[in-house]
Amino acid sequence: MSLLNEMSQKAFDLGVPISVHMDVTYRCNERCVHCYLDHEDHGEMTTVEIKGVLDQLAEAGVFFLTFSGGEVFLRRDFFEILEYARRLQFNVKIKTNAVMIRESEAKRIRALGVDTIQISVYSYRPEVHDAITKLPGSFHRTIKAIRFMLAQGLKVTIANVLMTWNRHDSDGLQKLAIEMGAHYTLDPTITPKMDGDTSILSLRISGEELPDVFRNPNLVPNMEEFCAPPKPVTDDDLEGYSCSAGHSFCYISPYGDVFPCVQFPLPSGNIRQQKFLDIWNHSPELKEVRSIKAKDLTTCSSCSHVSSCTRCPGLAYMEGSMRGPSTADCEKSYYRTGVPTANMLRKAGQVPITSLVQIRPLGLPA
Amino acid sequence: MPETYIARSSAIAARMLAGEMMVMNSMDSTFFTLNEVATAIWQAADGRTPLREIVRNRVCEQFDIDPDQAQTDAEQFVSELSQHGILLVSDQPLGDPHTPEAL
Questions:
Q1: pLDDT single digits (tens) B41-52
Q2: Which of A91, A207, B55, B73 keeps 20 to 30 A from A251, CA to CA?
Q3: Half-sphere exposure (Cβ direction) of A57: Cα atoms closer than 13 Å
Q4: Are B8 and B87 in contact (CB under 8 A)?
């Protein structure tokens, strides 16, 4: 185990929020077809409020801090926030579409000691990328910005979301990333909108197409191990937890709402009404999330994939129960290994599509 | 003998976790943890206080270590961290370590 993993495990065991994802705005200059956010501003935290939150996060032991949105650079105070975060010695990662980044911004980001910039790019073909973002010219602006940042020595990750619109473009985009000197990641996960609207799930690629992703050695270096059938389940596996959400990680919205994860819309408190550590230590919702071990999962506890599945409790929650299966992850496990999941076997012959829960973050009006 | 001044690099991130200081360099993502003594030196690395004074006031007094041994260990520790870009070392006082460079 690497030293970093050791410390992450220690934070998990001690219940220290070592990592936080903070969206500073939901406003955006792109309108990506797969985006789950409501881009209206319902009352973002002010500069002073965000600085106060950052003080609290530092005190709580947060080390890894991701700023995302919306488009973070739409906030005129974003550099002020960034500088403040770096003074507090967070390890900062920024997620952005980069269309507002020019050479001067790239220099400033470098000078502030930002660790990584993750930039959304959906194709190597401008017409495909621009069709997804609905912002004409966005591909060229984003790629130009990536070159500015790489020239400054910044670590840049190109993050692609695989969907029906760009299903054939991943290899070409990965090649472009390598040519430029950027890292490349691909995620086939499309999540429902924040208000529970599932219409964008139609953009998901079909399960039959997932093996092309999982068995692509350019994307999965340890492909044989990754696609191997699951190992026999042990008692230790059943005593384990799904992921770090709510254990050593959480998400804070632009309105100060705290959730276990950006993909787990269970309102757990609002930082405008309570101190962060009060929410972290005493929120009944977070306590419930932390209490769930693999053995407590309604269907997954009897699944052969339980130890290796990427089951997302947030997606499961959006399907109806945080203790239930996440169908998208069941599909991934099946198409990764060829071994059906307990959930698939249970559902064989049924049509049990559970309605998604309606999500209303605490900071928003009813 | 010239004084040695040390300052934390603006490229680093740091946080205490269960008594250990985690330090990460954003330039190359190298990750370290510092023990109590190293943390005391690191936290005192303000660029203005000579290393000898840091060792005397922050190490020997707090940890009951022999001064000569402490000075030798501190110099080695500073050398190692400076090689990784975690600490800046100079024979002249350095700037405020909390101010990221070249803003």
A1: 999 999 999 999
A2: A207
A3: 33
A4: yes
Helix (H, G, I), strand (E, B) or coil at B103: coil
What are the structure tokens assigned to A280, written together?
A: 């972290």
Q: Which of A154, A120, A123 shows the shortest CA–CA distance to A28? A: A120
Overall residue count recorded for chain B in this entry: 103
Using the Cβ of B84 and the Cβ atoms of chain A, whether some distance falls under 8 Å is answered with no
Distances from the Cα of A29 to the Cαs of A39, A117, A134, in angstroms?
9, 18, 9
Is any Cβ of chain A less than 8 angstroms from the Cβ of B94?
no
In A115-150, which positions are buried (b, 16+ CB within 10 angstroms) versus exposed (e)?
Answer: bbbbbbbbbbbeebbbbbbebeebbebbbebbbbbb
Q: For residues A251 and A131, what is the distance between their CA atoms, to the nearest angstrom?
A: 29
A179 burial (CB, 10 Å; 0-12 / 13-18 / 19+) is exposed
Is pLDDT of A365 > 50?
A: no
pLDDT in tens, A196-234: 888 999 999 988 888 888 888 888 888 888 999 999 999
Are residues B101 and A111, on separate chains, in Cβ contact within 8 Å?
yes
Q: ipTM, 2 decimals?
A: 0.86
Whole-Å CA distances, A227 to A110, A220, A230, A246: 38, 10, 9, 28
Q: Are A244 and A19 contacting, i.e. CB atoms less than 8 angstroms apart?
A: yes
Q: What is the pLDDT of residue A348?
A: 79
CA dihedral (B31, B35, B37, B39) positive or negative: positive
